[in-house]
Amino acid sequence: MDQAVFPDLWEVSDPQLIAETFSSRIWKVRLADGSPAVVKALKPFDDVADELRGAHYLSWRDGVGAVRLLGFEGHNMLLEFAGDRLLVDDLNEHGDRHATDIANEVMARLFSPSDAPPPGDLQPLKERFSSLFKKAGQDRSAELESPYRDGAVIAERLLSNPHDLRVLHGDLHHENVLHGDRGWLAIDPKGLIGDPGFDAANFFYNPLDRQADLCIRPERIAVMAELFAGTLGQRPDTILDHAIAWGCLSASWHAEDGNDRDETSELAVVAAVRGVRARF
Prior knowledge:
With 280 residues, the protein is of the alpha+beta class. Helices cover 47% and strands 18% of the residues. A 5-stranded antiparallel sheet has the order 1-2-3-5-4, with helices on one face. Strands 6-9-10 form a 3-stranded antiparallel sheet. The radius of gyration is 19 Å and the shape is globular.
């Protein structure tokens, strides 16, 4: 969609393109009552099912901890305006522990009970790890010792014995949590089902531009593990295992893309998490 053409029934006006990614164009618009909203117009791409599942997740969550889905037509989503302030902005202004507390509170709200039945198209978490398992298999065949092989073993163990099966956001991090009129809300879910420790794991690796000076700090890793463990009713070492598995998965995606720099950066955080995990 190169121009702002939206369903008539939404009665939106004054479209302003505020972001464009490989998967979508994001427009800020005005509703009929003058209040702001956002239209996410999906492009045709291989993983569009991720975004569609995300819309179903938002409909199910119905505004609790996440932005509200106001309309859904074809590949266009009309979304509540979550605000202009990112969680990473609070981290930069008020410190990492302040931002971690907010992340923890948002995650707790996202896991609060819902009376509605969960979406029927949630992706099983094991499918999400296919790139890691593929990379680990390649390294085994080549007789290479690699963090991917160890990460795949940890992931297999976690997947075979989940603490709980819950509906997951699937992509929680410091740029997917925003502050607006309703407080802090999550955006851009993927719609997965699996162990809730997965949703905590990505925070260890973010903000992405702070991996070299912040994310590798053992004290930060330990604080996150303790805090998230308390919220999710799991042990800190289990949360750290989820973080190791997530980091290896993310690095495997970078490896597939030939992105050596980000792969190396991600694996450096994996090594730091492993160091903290060894204490437990």
